[in-house]
């Protein structure tokens, strides 16, 4: 399968323009088909009552990294998360993190991808694995996918 760079840059633009990423500030890069990386910073406004990052942050970044690794393998349609397993290793406080996603298998019906959440030292703080499926939503119809530079 030969995935072109226009598709990868289109997915990066799509991510950058998603309204939810105004709340969860982060930056997606897709270096090649089947791989995605999201960089973001945990800040105190993301903490739960015990003073560490809330699980929603772990889920959002791990799901997004796996999702974009999966969607990077599908050029025409937006994929949907159908299931996602999350494994939390340790709590994190205010620090820079990165979620690294990797396509595992499938491109036709079910796509499997996994992701790891790493601290600044490269130590894993969480991991996830999801299944994704093609939707009827065409990427070309989504604002940002076909528009200008990422």
UniProtKB/TrEMBL annotation:
Coiled coil: none
GO MF terms, alphabetically ordered: acyl-CoA hydrolase activity
Keywords linked to the UniProt accession: Hydrolase
Keyword presence, Hydrolase: yes
Ranges of residues in domain Thioesterase: 51-126
Protein name: PaaI family thioesterase
Originating organism: Sandaracinobacter neustonicus
């Amino acid at each position: 399968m030969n995935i072109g760079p226009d598709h990868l840059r289109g997915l990066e633009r799509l991510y950058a323009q998603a309204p939810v990423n105004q709340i969860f500030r982060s930056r997606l890069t897709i270096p090649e088909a089947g791989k995605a990386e999201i960089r973001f910073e945990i800040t105190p406004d993301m903490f739960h009552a015990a003073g560490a990052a809330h699980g929603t942050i772990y889920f959002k970044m791990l799901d997004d990294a796996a999702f974009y690794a999966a969607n990077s393998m599908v050029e025409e349609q937006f994929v949907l998360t159908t299931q996602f397993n999350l494994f939390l290793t340790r709590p994190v406080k205010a620090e820079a993190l990165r979620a690294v996603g990797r396509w595992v298998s499938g491109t036709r019906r079910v796509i499997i991808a996994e992701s790891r959440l790493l601290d600044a030292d490269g130590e894993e703080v969480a991991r996830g694995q999801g299944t994704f499926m093609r939707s009827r939503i065409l990427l070309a119809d989504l604002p940002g996918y076909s528009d200008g530079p990422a």
